[in-house]
Write a structure and sequence with these properties.
The chain is α/β, with parallel strands linked by helices and 282 residues long. The protein is 45% helix and 20% strand.
Amino acid sequence: MNGHEQAITITGDGFEMLGILSLPAAGATAHSTAMLIVVGGAQYRAGSHRQFVLLARRLAAAGYPVLRFDLPGMGDSPGEPVPFEDTAPHIAAALDAIGQNTSALRSVLWGLCDGASAALLYLHARQDARVGGLVLLNPWVRSEAGLARARVRHYYRQRLFQRDFWRKLAGGGVGFTALRGLWRNLRTMRRAAPQSLSFQELMALAWQAFEGKILLILSGKDLTAQEFIEHARSHPGWQCALQRPSVTRHDLPNADHTCSQAEDQQQLERLTLSWLDTLGRD
C-alpha cells in the first residue's frame, strides 16, 4: 500500500469510538477532499470481505485521506449499539476528527445499505457544510410495503414465466406456496402508509436539499437495491431527486449487495475514485 494508517480515538457527547485513518504516503500531495466511510448494519470498520479496508487504501494511494470507524457497540468501540437513524452525533464527531487530523477542506460521505441511509439522515439533521458529496451504495429504504413491492416485481413476476413453477403447481408441489406468498405480498403493498414522516421520506428531503454531488451505485443482484429502485419509482419525491443533474448513477449488473466478487469490488473502487476526481475539478 502506498501510504500509511493510524488509529485515532473519536470522542463525542457520552461516547468514544475507534477510527482508522488511511493517509497518502509521506511527502505526497493530499487532495483537499477526504472520505468518511459510514459503516451500517451489524458491521465494523473493515466491512464484509474487508471491503472498506480495500476501498480506503485504494483512495489513500490516490491521495485522498479516508476515515472509517466503529460505531458504539461495534468492533472496538465501547457502548451500546446505535440504530442507523440515530447516528448523526457519531458522524459529526467523525467529521470533526477528519478536520483535526488532516488538511482536508471538505469531506464526502460514503455509505453502504443503512450506512448510505444514515449519511442522508445526517444531512437532514445537520445540514453540514463540510460535506461536499455523497457516495451511496444500495441505500436501505426497506418497509413492509416496499419489500412486498420488490418481491412481486423482481421475484414473483419472474417465477410466473418459469416452466418449472407451473410444473410444480400442476403436481401439487411448492407452486401453491408461491401463489400464497404472492397474495400476501400484494395485500401488504396495499396497506395504508403511516401519517408521520418516515425515515425514507427524510432521506428524500435531504437528497433534494443537498447542494453537492451524489454518486449512486446499485447492484443488479441485490434485493436492497431493487427495493430502492421500486421505492423511487413509486414516490414522486424520489423521482425528482434522482433526476437532478448533480446525481450520477452507475449500475453493477452482476454485483451482489457488498460487491463480494473481486471484479465488482475493483469496479466499485474505480467508480468511486473517478467520481472523486471530478469533484476536484469543480
